Amino acid sequence: MPVKHTPGERITELRKTYSISREALAERSGLDLELIRRIEEEGHIPDLAPLVKISRALGVRLGTLLDDHEELGPVITRAGEAEATTRFVTGLPEAGPAGGGIAHQGLNFKALAADKGGRHMEPFIVDIEPDAVQEKSTHEGEEFIHVLSGKLSMEYGKDSNILDAGDSVYYDSIVPHRLLAADGKPVRILAVIYTPV
Questions:
Q1: How many of the other CB atoms lie within 10 Å of CB of 89?
Q2: Range of the domain at 61
Q3: Which residue from 44, 104, 192, 195 could staple onto 141, CB 3.0 to 4.6 Å apart?
């Protein structure tokens, strides 16, 4: 079985391969240098937007930061297999005396086509914990969300909507947005994220 690599480890490998310093990556991506250090060294990912910005700055697909290997043919994910393919967990740290603290286990992203080579879409099953704390995210591309279970609160720009199981939404990711549990219970969604190359 191939060794799994975190997005932070992949970013470090790509930076070394392309001889790009952390400082140069921060400048190219528009991200804070400390955030890139935390992603690479601690596996910290506050939301999906930094990974999209880093992949663009490195000139690679978002999937390159998430893949273990690439399959040219179809990739089938059997029922239950997605549970074992958690690629990353996002969430803001709890407020502490110095602003530090333990990260909320907010959104768990489980890849559905992790090893499909050359893909332009990223399909995930995402579990949103009731106490998830997320900043609004903004990045290039489009997203499609289908609520599988629970009640989802979607903030998009200045608007807020509640989606129930069976509801779906398609939107431009460049508009600030975030997804939260609406009623204090877990939510499970199918999320398909498209980012232009």
A1: 17
A2: 7-66
A3: 195
In Å, how far are 80, 104, 130, 166 from 119, measured between CA atoms?
22, 30, 31, 26
pTM for the full predicted model: 0.67
Non-local (6+) Cβ contacts of 20 within 8 A are 14, 28, 58
60 shares a domain with 98: no
Domain harbouring 100, CATH code: 2.60.120.10
Query: What pLDDT, in 10s, does the model give residues 44-79?
Result: 876 778 888 898 898 887 777 776 555 556 777 777
**How many separate domains does the chain show?**
2
Give pLDDT tens digits for 73-115. Answer: 677 777 776 655 555 566 555 433 344 444 445 778 887 877 7
**Best CA proximity match to 31, nearest among 54, 47, 13:** 54
pLDDT in tens, 169-194: 999 999 999 999 998 899 999 999 88
On whether residue 145 sits in a domain, the answer given is yes
Strand-pair partners of 121: 194
- β partners of residue 107: 90, 128
* Inside any domain, residue 112: yes
Residue 1 included in any domain:
no
